[in-house]
Amino acid sequence: MTENQQANATKDNLQAPLIRTLQAHDDAALAAVIREVSAEYGLTPDKGFSVADKTLDCLSEVYQAEGSQYWVIEYQGKVVGGAGIAPLAKNDGVCELQKMYFSRAIRGQGMAKPLTRQCIEFAKQQGYQSMYLETTAVLVEALALYEKLGFSHCQHLGETGHDACEIAMIKAL
């Protein structure tokens, strides 16, 4: 490797991750991240986790609905994670934090808090009064983050289709 190539490689490694809205050309990469992370944690499609969602390969279409938005994290030119907000059906004023996944390449780099805060700010701007989420105990890091950000445990709300997520949490906005 030449000195110039080494300098460029170092520069690329230091490139800050970027949070941006999901675009149609991101769908396949995002679905791959969700499948990869789900497999890593044993969240298989047959157990009712979001990896089984029929819309997984076309999330940019799903998040065009009113009151919805999804952001991806791009790092070194690749989609490496993301999270979204959508209204929680049959629960006026409540949105759901959905599909928050991070590949190994981005974990531990401090992106979860700013991404969650982005989601919270959007939810407030949309007029939601509460943010709900469902998760599972195997996602220890996610649970700690949610608790740190003021989410508290609650009863399950709505029909999310993720019956394997045994933990429900909510945060007043």
From TrEMBL:
It holds the Pfam family Acetyltransf_1. CDD domains: NAT_SF (cd04301). InterPro entries: Acyl_CoA_acyltransferase (IPR016181), GNAT_dom (IPR000182), NAT_camello-type (IPR050769). PROSITE patterns: GNAT. One of its GO terms (molecular function) is N-acetyltransferase activity. Residues 17-173 form the N-acetyltransferase domain. Keywords: Transferase. PANTHER family: GNAT FAMILY N-ACETYLTRANSFERASE, LD18367P. This is GNAT family N-acetyltransferase.
